[in-house]
Specification:
Number of helices: 10
Strand content: 15-25%
Number of domains: 2
Order of helices and strands: EHHEEHHHEHEEHEEHEHEEH
Radius of gyration: 21 Å
Largest sheet: 8 strands, mixed
Structural class: alpha+beta
Number of strands: 11
Strand order of the largest sheet: 4-5-6-7-8-11-10-9
Length: 271
């Protein structure tokens, strides 16, 4: 059976350096902050790459949003919510779904050795799937921890499509919050629309700690002394709340456990 005609057109700004980091991501060779920053830029550029299959044409973003995510997202989230320990068990779960993406990619006849750009498409799909799956796994981890800690909060329903894309992931004491798996959002989001952010930070390239970033107005409700700090040295400075000024943004960052303690204290005062 003859293969259907397939072509890929890359954006003009997509350079050989971008191509290399995308391939490195697919081969699990991507290392270092500079590599990851270039990779994020590369995958953003690939949003507008064009896949032509026969008479049909799609952007890479359309392939992910209309072909990949609708087929997998609800099934993944349903299984994620059934896990007893989302932090420990979710990597195997999202990896299993990633393998399905690879199998479907091959089944559709999209993996062509004679067209090297098809590897860029596969890497693009796996990158965005990983961001989706890890992001929601971290949300479930935080929601369950807040519930166990006694924090009063409201969270969006992950199984409701409209709620899943609501502006905020959760609210605490009327403040809108977002949950992030890295601090990269600070560099690309302008303006920042949430009152606080619960963020996972990498420590020495191996383990994670969780930090809460609050806008100044949200910090005013908690209040207290702060230490002037630097985002690049934040891990070492978290013995007390740290005031961070970077670009157009200003935050007070404090250890997630300390933030929970202060929120519980405020809840106690109101009750």
């Amino acid at each position: 059976m003859a293969q259907v005609a397939l072509q890929i057109q890359l954006p003009n700004k997509f350079t050989p350096k971008h191509e290399q980091v995308v391939i490195d991501y697919l081969a699990d060779r991507l290392k270092g902050k500079q590599g990851w920053r270039l990779a994020v830029q590369a995958f953003d550029l690939l949003d507008n790459a064009i896949l032509s299959v026969g008479a049909s044409t799609y952007t890479f973003r359309t392939v992910y949003e209309q072909i990949v995510e609708p087929q997998l997202s609800n099934r993944y989230l349903q299984e994620l919510l059934r896990l007893q320990d989302a932090k420990r068990q979710s990597p195997e779960l999202w990896s299993r779904f990633a393998r399905q993406i690879v199998n479907d990619f091959v089944r559709l006849g999209w993996r062509r050795q004679e067209i090297p750009e098809t590897s860029l498409l596969l890497s693009y799909l796996l990158y965005w799937w990983g961001a989706f799956a890890r992001g929601y796994a971290f949300e479930v981890e935080i929601f369950r921890d807040l519930l166990q800690s006694g924090i009063q909060f409201q969270a969006h329903n992950l199984l409701d499509w409209q709620e899943r894309f609501s502006p905020s992931d959760l609210s605490v004491r009327g403040l809108a919050g977002d949950i992030k798996t890295s601090v990269y959002f600070i560099y690309i989001a302008a303006p920042l629309s949430h009152d606080f952010y619960i963020v996972r930070l990498l420590v020495q390239g191996q383990s994670y700690t969780i930090v809460t970033f609050l806008k100044p107005a949200a910090w005013d409700e908690i209040n207290g002394d702060t230490l002037e700090g630097d985002l690049t040295k934040l891990i070492q400075q978290l013995t007390r709340p740290v005031r961070i000024r970077t670009g157009k943004h200003e935050f007070v960052a404090l250890d997630y456990t300390e933030w929970k303690r202060r929120i519980l204290q405020l809840q106690g005062e109101i009750q």
